[in-house]
Amino acid sequence: MVTAAASSATTHGAAWAAAAQTPDPELPMLTLADLGILRDVQELEDRVVATITPTYSGCPAMREIGLDVRRRLEAAGYENVQVATQLAPAWTSDWITEEGRGKLRAAGIAPPGAAWTGTGPVPVTLGLPTSAPCPHCGSASTSHTAAFGATACRSLHRCHTCGEPFEAVKAI
């Protein structure tokens, strides 16, 4: 039987370390910890429960992410693994770590800017979305060229300074 204390204890021990190193299938340079979608890993008496949150509710990679987390935990020696999905609070691109943002830039993908904080009125932008700074040269002189990149969570841009096209992760 699992005690109340054990069921609420969050750990950043061996199980967390194993699950946290799971690469994102759409952005493989990032781990689930870098993205902030690995919410919790609990080592209970009879099982390990890893909790993940999708970057958006229709994310097609969630099934694969859950299977990858399970495989990594099982490979680390955990026999009874449960992967839970938590939808609230909703993921925000603000949860991407500074290390994750650096990995995106190193891969030529612009990290997202700050998202809405959830306080005050919801901002409404009319017109074309703003463009991201160039991850290649750092220039702010860029243009937004397409709403979607390789995945729905990325957009396409072009730098006017170095001429390079690049993707950006959308701020959510």
Note down, in words, how this protein is organized.
This protein has a 4-stranded mixed sheet with strand order 4-7-6-5. It folds into 2 domains: 82 residues, Fe-S cluster assembly (FSCA) (GMP Synthetase, Chain A, domain 3, 2-Layer Sandwich); 75 residues, no CATH class. The N terminus is likely disordered. By secondary structure, the chain is an alpha/beta fold. The protein has 5 helices and 7 strands; from the N terminus they run αααββαβαββββ. 27% of the residues are buried.
In the CATH hierarchy, the third-tier topology of the largest domain is known as GMP Synthetase, Chain A, domain 3
Number of domains: 2
The CATH homologous superfamily of the largest domain corresponds to: Fe-S cluster assembly (FSCA)
Q: What would CATH call the class of the largest domain?
A: Alpha Beta
What is the subunit arrangement here? single chain
Portion in helices: 10-25%
Could you tell me the strand content as a percent range? 15-25%
Q: Trace the largest sheet across and list its strands.
A: 4-7-6-5
How far apart are the first and last residues' alpha carbons, in Å? 40 Å
| Separate helix tally | 5
* Silhouette: elongated
Topology, number of strands: 7
SSE order, as H and E?
Answer: HHHEEHEHEEEE
Unreliable segments of 5+ consecutive residues: 1-11
Task: Indicate the radius of gyration in whole angstroms.
Answer: 18 Å
Q: Which second-level CATH architecture of the largest domain applies?
A: 2-Layer Sandwich
What is the residue-averaged pLDDT? 86
Largest sheet, if any?
4 strands, mixed
Secondary-structure-derived class: alpha/beta
